[in-house]
Amino acid sequence: MFKSEIGNNSLFFVFLGPAGVDAVVTVIGQGKGYWSNPLLASDASPAYYILAASPWFFVLGSLIWFFLWYLLFQKLKEPLNLFFMFLFIAGHSWGSSSWLMRIFKQMNVYTKSNQLSIIFAWGLLIIYFALIAFVAVYCLRIYLKNRKIDKAFPAAF
Questions:
Q1: I need a surface site. Which of 7, 58, 73, 151 has the fewest CB within 10 A?
Q2: Count of CB atoms within 10 A of residue 49's CB?
Q3: SS3 47
Q4: What is the spatial distance between Cα 21 and Cα 56, in angstroms, rounded to a whole number?
């Protein structure tokens, strides 16, 4: 069932992982003061304004954002669908990794004065990026097979 659902909209699922992680760590990574005063929200994207209103609005807004892109990815044709897939996977991978580093610092997983902790945090991010790449290749293969051009790239994937 899971593979058939991905097959129906595989390019959406390429970016859903990093986008979902980005949304979750955006909320988790907020400073202590945020929880008593949402106006202290920290985010570089336009979603800041929703986050500053309420973490619940941000969660709801994220779900609506994902749903709209799910629908759009079903309608978009090449090359726009591929452009947005790569744009979102890059943007949300960067966004989520910057929040992960902030969380690593808060949890003392990463400390500037300890080179081993720096390498460990770097390694965790590399594992995260490898997982994103694995899911992206898996979903992209499904997309290509559904397009019937996978035979044109037999060794590439």
A1: 151
A2: 13
A3: coil
A4: 16
Distance of alpha carbon 75 from alpha carbon 38, whole angstroms:
36
Q: Which residue has 């058939």 as its token pair?
A: 4
Kindly report each contact of residues 143-151 with a partner whose C-beta sits within 8 Å and lies 24 or more positions away, as own/partner. Answer: 143/10, 143/11, 146/7, 146/10
pLDDT in tens, 61-82: 999 999 999 999 989 998 999 9
Distances (CA, A) of 86 to 83, 89, 121, 155: 5, 5, 25, 21
For residue 135, give both structure tokens. 């899911």
* This prediction's pTM: 0.83
Segment 115-131, tens digit of pLDDT: 999 999 999 999 999 99
